[in-house]
Design goal:
Helix content is 38%, strand content 15%. With 436 residues, it is of the alpha+beta class. It has two domains: 213 residues, D-Maltodextrin-Binding Protein, domain 2 (3-Layer(aba) Sandwich), CATH 3.40.190; 152 residues, Periplasmic binding protein-like II (D-Maltodextrin-Binding Protein, domain 2, 3-Layer(aba) Sandwich). Strands 3, 4, 5, 8, 9, 10, 11, 12 and 13 form a nine-stranded mixed beta sheet that branches. A two-stranded antiparallel sheet has the order 1-2. The protein has a two-stranded antiparallel sheet with strand order 6-7.
Length: 436
């Protein structure tokens, strides 16, 4: 997935007691006991930081953050090791078990539990406590996304909610008020009908993760459904809520509000080209330079269902359980994580929102990045990735269902039922693999 994240100035000297308790499943022999810290005052160490920011985020991550941290901390050198997210996931297990993995890394919310179940992570409750963090320091539910079997393994770093992007010139050309953006089903469908009458297909829906799956999941939650049951042992996205959500998307095609068979990224490209008015897309598009030539705005996704809800991804810091892990490096990594979270006010330049409430709630953030306001306003009702070992293989079936329904291969109900059956098989396999 496309990524972004970072923070602001609040350097606090906090005692860092780092508990190096080993993760539950198949420890690779990391060090045990407590690590005393403070603003790390031990011997000089070099810590390896693995992350997936290889593109536009890199110039923000390294010179503005990592290099600044290194300048301010004479006894810590952070070595930035960027790679593709998929490569990071492939390399991590063998590297950690061989004692050659990173000291600290960032992962998406739906990967943390998998790493924890593989024994690759150190439990971070004592780190969280010593840094002064609690669940209330981040958006509701986000801290839990970094947990596994009632233990904490991750500290939130960034969030990336979906929003509604609007080409104001297209609305004007169709004689719609560009300053009045639809907020609910009635106003949204009315706008689509008026756009259609003017010869414009107002929202292009696609059957890909970007962004069809994210739109479907937002609608699923809006209609009161969920992807899985509470224990993540059974897929539930073929509920009545799921059928309503996917039917809404399919009907956009059937009623001519969207073309059929939209290519991946075809919808955002159509918005930029002035061929459509609305696009459900992530906060990362606020950094899209192609928007510079447009009259555009972004707002919260409209409430199509019975309640407000929106999809959001997240990223989390993790402390790695390398074979023979140096406790000083882990303590230094904790200092780095706290500093990065405190200094993340300019991370929105990468298209991600800081997870830290204190940074995000500073009025200066919106003053500097006014396009972020609707995304910030959505966070109280955002839903984050499901946290469970191996979950990404099960959630991939959602995209298959969305694609099959939008391309007319199956009805919404049939597509969702078939996907749920496959997801349940995968969930059972995951339980067998990870001992759930």
């Amino acid at each position: 997935m496309k990524k972004r994240s970072a923070r602001r100035i609040l350097a606090a000297a906090v005692a860092v007691g780092v508990g190096l308790a080993l993760s539950a499943c198949g420890s690779s022999g990391g060090a045990g006991g407590e690590v005393a810290g403070g603003d790390y005052s031990g011997p000089k160490v070099t810590i390896n930081f693995w992350n997936g920011w290889t593109g536009g985020a890199a110039p923000v991550l390294v010179p503005r953050l990592v290099d600044k941290f290194n300048t301010e901390h004479k006894n810590i050198v952070v070595k930035d090791v960027p790679m593709e997210w998929a490569d990071l996931a492939k390399k991590m297990p063998l590297a950690v078990k061989a004692g050659k993995g990173p000291d600290v890394a960032v992962a998406h919310g739906d990967d943390v539990a998998t790493y924890a179940a593989q024994g690759l992570l150190l439990k971070s409750e004592s780190i969280v406590k010593s840094l002064g963090y609690s669940a209330d320091d981040f958006p509701e539910g986000l801290m839990k996304a970094g947990s596994y079997q009632d233990a904490q393994y991750g500290i939130p770093w960034s969030v990336t909610p979906l929003g509604l992007y609007v080409n104001k010139d297209v609305l004007k050309a169709a004689s719609l008020d560009p300053e009045t953006v639809p907020t609910d089903k009635a106003s949204y469908m009315d706008a689509l009908a008026k756009l259609k009458a003017a010869g414009v297909q107002g929202e292009w829906v696609d059957g890909y993760v970007f962004t069809g799956t994210f739109e479907f999941e937002s609608l699923l939650w809006q209609f009161g459904g969920d992807l899985f049951d509470k224990n993540v042992s059974k897929a539930t996205f073929n509920s009545d809520a799921g059928v309503q959500a996917l039917t809404h998307m399919v009907d956009l095609v059937k009623q001519g509000y969207s073309p059929a068979n939209v290519a991946q990224d075809g919808n955002i490209n159509a918005l930029i080209a002035g061929k459509t008015a609305f696009n459900w897309n992530g906060v990362w598009q606020t950094t899209n330079t192609a928007f510079d030539k447009l009259q555009w705005t972004a707002t919260a996704v409209p409430q199509i269902g019975t309640e407000k809800a929106v999809w959001s991804s997240s990223t989390h810091w993790m402390f790695m359980n390398n074979k023979g892990q140096d406790k000083n490096k882990t303590a230094a990594a904790a200092t780095f994580v706290k500093w990065m979270n405190d200094n993340s006010a300019d991370w929105p330049q990468t298209g991600e929102l800081p997870a830290s409430n204190s940074v995000r709630d500073d009025p200066a953030l919106v003053q500097k990045y006014p396009n972020l306001k609707p995304f910030l306003d959505e966070l109280p009702y955002a839903h984050y990735e499901t946290s469970a070992p191996g979950i990404t293989n099960a959630t991939a079936t959602v995209t298959v269902a969305v694609n099959e329904a939008l391309t007319g291969k199956k009805s919404p109900k049939e597509a969702l039922d078939d996907a749920v059956a496959k997801a349940n098989t995968l969930l059972k396999q995951n339980a067998d693999t990870y001992g759930e």
